[in-house]
């Protein structure tokens, strides 16, 4: 054991793992690496500066502000494990991660690894895999060659950061974020808050016209239900409002309400077509009607089933305006008629704090107070909900797609060709906005039992592999949609997000990071980016995720370790999708402001 440890130290094969990653630990040991084990959870080893080697134990707060112990590396060595211990070292995981199953440990094998870890206790690891960098002593971190995290990825991996980054996309690429990212607003800023309110108003006007056509038995071209193939009884692509209005439920002036919606949409179309370019007054969409009264009437129609009748002339104008608006608005196809929005805390993960809302006052009430500086960590964003998603057996799903960044200059991005789908536990419905129907996060859905109304063909594990999804699409006669629409769309969304967030991220040579992007699929199979997660969970919660998560960890190590010595080694399901030309680094020193001369002498 001592000889092996010395050899590993000479060959730079010492690693450390912080967090629930038994697969990483096993794969590195199989390569002949030796682990420098971390101290037990609940305490932090911190080096005392000033030349002293004294070590102090302290508790570190988590990113969420809760007291939470984490194992932390220190450059002068860690807690020494008992040589005769057969109990494995357990590392608590932060709240942002899924809880994994405990690692099975062979007692005899663990004795050997404990001994070898003891022998390298004073060595600096050459490779570190950690949940968060804040857990690692900064001095030591500078000396570790390869780390699985980058500093400052918030511009990409927080909801607020991604929202702000994609607003700047046109400065970097000839691309429109509205074609792949549902429009999103940071409610903590006055300007974006007002922009959201205007967007809500305009979307309500379009929704009212759609409802009016549906109640009249009409349907806009391009919004009709796709032809049936071998869909199950739960599969659906549109969500019409049932005729629930009864006696006395009609509006007092439905003609006036329809006329107001038509006028708003006409004015908005003029803005989109630049017909207002010479107008010096404020946007007519904000002032042309009494919005408070309009919204209350709209709620009655959309949510209470109030009647709404169109004259023949109004019906023709309605069809024409909606058709022209569909040509101008990239997200027209994901809008329904209920104007649903989704409110999210910026820095939370696993679906925590997310709420769906259909009323403007409800969104503003939920987000009230987020403009204060002290609430910046809990910054809220509001995003347009995809009301017309592709469903499987009548159930909503999303896609977890991995990608790997191995360099920031030149930006180098790898796309993992295997991914998985996450299903909700109840059938999709816009009339019921419970999390069990609308939030696909595993952490959310595991709190619910499968609904008795759920189609029995939905997998009990609520997870599918991408291969199972492709087989399903083939049975629907849409086999080409995966490779021709969904995968290219996901790649483009990932690259566009990285390009516009790149300047606000901190990269380090030799390090890398695996990200998990979440996508929703529209009825037309177009993927829509929802968010990007740093340090995605590797929890083997199902048979599908057990296999895929193990594979992506294996292939990541192949790519970042094995490929350095053998460029032709297999890299599994990773595909290089982008490597830009290297950009010369700007000098650290700015303009030389030194003035040369001689001092004046007294006469």
UniProtKB/TrEMBL annotation:
Keyword hit for Amino-acid biosynthesis: no
The keyword Transferase appears for this protein: no
Region (Disordered) residue spans: 44-104, 222-253
Biased composition (Acidic residues): 60-69
Signal peptide extent: none
Record-linked PROSITE patterns: TTL (PS51221)
Entry keywords, A to Z: ATP-binding, Cell projection, Cilium, Cytoplasm, Cytoskeleton, Flagellum, Ligase, Nucleotide-binding
GO molecular function: ATP binding; protein-glycine ligase activity, initiating
Catalytic reaction list: L-glutamyl-[protein] + glycine + ATP = glycyl-L-glutamyl-[protein] + ADP + phosphate + H(+)
GO biological process: cilium assembly; cilium movement
Predominant location category: cytoplasm
InterPro entries for this protein: TTL/TTLL_fam, TTLL_monoglycylase
Gene Ontology cellular-component terms listed: axoneme; microtubule cytoskeleton
Pfam families reported in the protein's UniProt record: TTL
Localization terms from the record: Cytoplasm, Cytoskeleton, Flagellum axoneme
PANTHER family (alphabetical): TUBULIN MONOGLYCYLASE TTLL3
Protein name: TTLL3 monoglycylase
Organism: Tyrannus savana (Fork-tailed flycatcher)
High-level lineage: Eukaryota, Metazoa, Chordata, Craniata, Vertebrata
